[in-house]
Each structure stands twice: as structure tokens, then as C-alpha cells.
Amino acid sequence: MLRKTQTVNENQRLLVFKNQELIKILNAGKHTLWDIKNELNFTTFDINELFVSLPNVERLYRNSEVLKTQIEHWKLDNDQVGILYVNDQLKGIVAPSEHLYLWKDTGEIRLDKVSIKNQIAIENRVFNLIMRAGANSASRLIRSENTVATKPIADLSVPKDHVGLLYIDGKLAEQLPPGNYGFWQLSNKVELKNFDCRTQILEVSGQEILSKDRVSLRINLSASIQIKDAQIAASSVDKLDEYIYKTLQLALREAVGTKSLDDILIDKLYINETVKELVTTQLSSIGIELKSVGVKDIILPGEMKAILNQVVEAQKAAEANVIKRREETSATRSLHNTAKVMENNPTLMRLKELEALEKVADRIDSLTVYGGLDGLMNGVVKLT
User: Fold this and answer.
1) Which of 116, 227, 248, 287 is deepest in the core (most CB within 10 A)?
2) Rounded CA separation 277/236 (Å)
3) Rounded distance, CA 26 to CA 15, Å?
4) β pairing state of 141-142 and 89-94
5) Distance CA 86, CA 28 (A)
6) Is this model's pTM higher than 0.70 or not?
7) Average pLDDT of every residue of the chain
8) Is residue 64 domain-shared with residue 154, that is, in the same domain?
9) What is the DSSP letter of 25?
10) How many angstroms separate the most distant Cα atoms in the chain?
11) Phi, psi dihedral angles at 188 (to 5 degrees)
12) Measured on CA atoms in the order 127, 131, 134, 138, is the torsion positive or negative?
């Protein structure tokens, strides 16, 4: 055919190539072109897609003044991130070192370049805008095909009553107070470790320990701790909770293993005081304050518990027997003293006789008296 007719919609652009060389770009409308030698071919683009996906676009743009009238080009350095806006709407995040080729007729295009060479923290206003637009995702990251897809921003949060340690490429960068933060992570590895600064309770439970006299005890220990310096704690040990647990466990074993069962039961505060003395300085050196420590339970084996119960029962029985003998002795001494007093006092003796007669009379229904009142008094009751 000598003539070729092409229809271009309003949202399209038609690239015309002659012998694989770009010669013109056609806008919306119906176009007729002469092609006597059948040398023309065409490529249609939807400019609503924004990005020019033309093969060899970089070379074509550099060599074609025609293409430059239709396409906008941006280049980012390897320490820059781009925030792309179209008609003041955020469209995505551009990775470092990227080339952007965009259709100009898509709308008003703006690319804000952000240097991440020395500062990867994101301004709160920009961070909130990106998060509201849902642009912090691998699918919204504008990148070359050979670039690993990842979220452009590390969305970090430090809870209330915590402190956060920020690490950039494995090195401690800064300590963060509670709040929400955003950091560029396209060229850096960003990590956050949170530490709870409130007083925490740590349980060391079910410890089977032999006392000095080889009695097996099961002991439950409770300790309250608080992080005073998160940076020292993080740099000193890897697994903080595990380290504190092991430290308390070893101190508990040392305290119990050097005392006999009787000593432990007599001095109930010995274990608490000894464990605290052993671990306070050690924990303080890694930024941890030991506020209190205490034994919750001391559990004896079944046979040992039965033996101790028998010992306690025997001790109590002996104590009761001593008290009983003491009271009997006291009663006998009192009777002896009373007898001595009555021996030299006839009137008191007679009163005791009458008291005895009254007790006897309470126990009988009737009484026959011979010899008058003197017979009753002298014959029925007579104390000697």
C-alpha cells in the first residue's frame, strides 16, 4: 500500500519508525502517511501509563529531538531518592540511580529529589504523606527490573515507656524516644531494637538444687529488674532476658549449695540476700538494675517432707509434755502451801470443811442426821 492510515486516540501517542529509525510522533487524530517502499512501522503508547516502556529509550531520547518534545527525563544519583508527583498527587518512590522517562502530556509532573547520603531519616510531613498514599510498598517503588524489590521506607515504632536503638548497616546510629519514625532503606539496612524501661518481673521457676547436706530442693525465685542503660545492655549481651535468667539461676544454685537444709529453713532471708549480693554488681555492669529478689517457694521431696513432719510433731509433743509437767509441779506446790497455812489456823481449816460439806450436799438427794448438827459437822466431813 502507498498510503497508510492510523487513528490515534486522545490518550495515545503513535511513534513512527522508518527503517527502525524514529522519524515522528503523532498525537490524537486520524493520520495518513505515504509508504511507497513499505518502510514504515508504528508503535502505540498509552500515556496514562505515565512511564515510557520503549526499548532502547535512553539511546532514542539522546539522539532524537522529536522524542524530547514528548518525554520528560530525570536521572537520580546513587545517593538520591525521588518522590514522584503527577498533578500534585504522589505516584510513587523512585529508587537511587534510576532514569525516568515520562510522557509530558500525562499532567504536571514533579520529582522531588532527596539526598540519603548523610541523612536517611524522613521528615514527618513527607513520611505521613507517603504512608497515607500507600506508597511504601514494593509495588509502588519505581525501579529497574534488575533491582531487588523492597519497601523503600522502614516504618518503625517505639512504644510508650520504651527506648529504641537504631542500627544502620549493623552500627548503632542513635537512641530513639517513643514515637513513629521513617527511614530510607533502599541503600542501607535499617534495624530497630526496642527495650522496655519499666520494672519487669522475671521468674526463675522449678530449680532442682542439692543443699550442702545433699537434700534435693525445688525452689522458685522471683526478681524485679529495670533497664537503666539500653545502649550498654545491647552492646554487652545478645539475648538480654536469657542472660539475666542464667545469672539469677547460677546465683541461686550457689546460695543453696553452700548451706544445709536446717540453715536454709532457719534463716529464710539468707537466699534472698545472697542472690542479690551475687548478681547486683554483675547486672549493673550491663545497664540493668536489680530492684528486688525473693524466694517464692521451697518444695521438699515427699519422703523428706514426711520426715520433717515427724520431727516437728515430736518436738511439739515434747514441748507439750514439758508444759504439762511444769503445770503439775506448780499445782502440787500450791497445795503444799495451802496445807501449811491451814495447819496453824483452825478457823481456816473449819471453812475448808464447810466448803467440802457443801460440795457433798450438792451430790445427794436426802441426808439423815444422827447426833444433831455437831454429829453432822464432825462425823460427815473432817479434814486432817
Assistant:
1) 248
2) 21
3) 6
4) parallel
5) 21
6) no
7) 84
8) yes
9) E
10) 176
11) -135, 155
12) positive
Render 331-382 in DSSP notation, one character per residue: HHHHHHHHHHHHHT-HHHHHHHHHHHHHHHHTT-S----SSHHHHIIIII--
d(CA 27, CA 86): 21
Phi, psi of 134 (to 5 degrees): 70, 30
The amino acid occupying position 353 is E
**Residue pointed to by grid coordinates 438427794:** 365
The predicted structure's pLDDT at residue 323: 80
pLDDT beyond 90 at 216 = no
pLDDT higher than 80, residue 270: yes
The answer to whether residue 53 scores a pLDDT higher than 80 is: no
Same domain, 189 and 230: no
Distance CA(239)–CA(106), nearest Å, equals 54
Which residue in this structure is represented by grid cell 497455812? 341
* 293 alpha carbon, distance to own chain's centre: 20
314, amino acid identity: A
More confident position, 209 or 250: 250
Are 42 and 128 found together in one domain?
no
Q: How far is CA 117 from CA 8, 77, 78, 112, 138, in A?
A: 45, 10, 9, 16, 22
Q: What does the alpha-carbon distance between residue 258 and residue 211 come to, in Å, rounded to a whole number?
A: 7
- Confidence category of residue 186, pLDDT binned at 50, 70, 90: confident
Domain count, the chain: 4
Closest CA to 54 of 10, 103, 109: 103
Helix axes 240-257, 270-284, angle to 10 degrees: 140
Identify any residues that bridge with 51 across adjacent strands, giving them in sequence order. Answer: 102
CA distance 219 to 268: 13
Asked if residue 68 and residue 178 are part of one domain, the reply reads yes
Place of cell 498510503: 3
pLDDT over 80 (residue 383) = no
Last residue of a domain, one of 172, 194, 216: 194
7: containing domain: 1-49
